Amino acid sequence: MDFTSQEYAEMHFVYGYCNGNALAARREYEARYPDRRIPSSAVFSRLHQRLVESGTVHKHHNEVGRGVVHDVGAEDLVLGMVLDDPETSTRDVAREVGLSNWKVWDILRKNKIKPFHINPVQALEETDFEPRVQFCRWLLNSDMEQYEFFKKILWTDESLFTREGVFNTHNMHHWSEQNTHATKERAFQRRFRVNVWAGVLGDQY
């Protein structure tokens, strides 16, 4: 679904208001028109490029479905899309901008942006944090007070089967110049699940 001429005009006004910063323009546009469909930052850059080259706000027939076919500004578009959505894929970016997948990778590497894996973490309630801290303190103190305290603990592990399916960290990335240690909540406490359990006590299991 394309935008109207009025929407394009207002996008370009906001783009100029933000001194050609597509990311800032997207934020400003969303603040001004919260009830509208919000375009990606790449739309602002493409719109300006289209006006410069053709004098029209509407797409050329060779842009539809392929994104920008020119090299001019392609790097900014790729970086803008990744900053807008750090969990996007290079294939989606390539399809939107009109570049090959390897070219998108080349742009990201050139700008030192790497795909870091997202780490799954336990979803905690607000009341969970303090009891966990207290337990850790108790455990450390007990080990100091009782000889071989840890050998008296039944250590357990389990394999959890849930309705969430398999979380494939290989396919989950967060594009950034530095590792932001991005996380994704899963293994929620309110769920359907089946555990396979095993335990070790001393040298017995």
Automatic annotation (TrEMBL):
The lineage of its organism: Eukaryota, Metazoa, Ecdysozoa, Arthropoda, Hexapoda. One of its GO terms (molecular function) is nucleic acid binding. This is DUF4817 domain-containing protein. InterPro entries: DUF4817, RNaseH_sf. PANTHER family: HTH PSQ-TYPE DOMAIN-CONTAINING PROTEIN, TRANSPOSABLE ELEMENT TC3 TRANSPOSASE-LIKE PROTEIN. It holds the Pfam family DUF4817. It comes from Graphocephala atropunctata. Residues 4-57 form the DUF4817 domain. It comes from the Eukaryota.
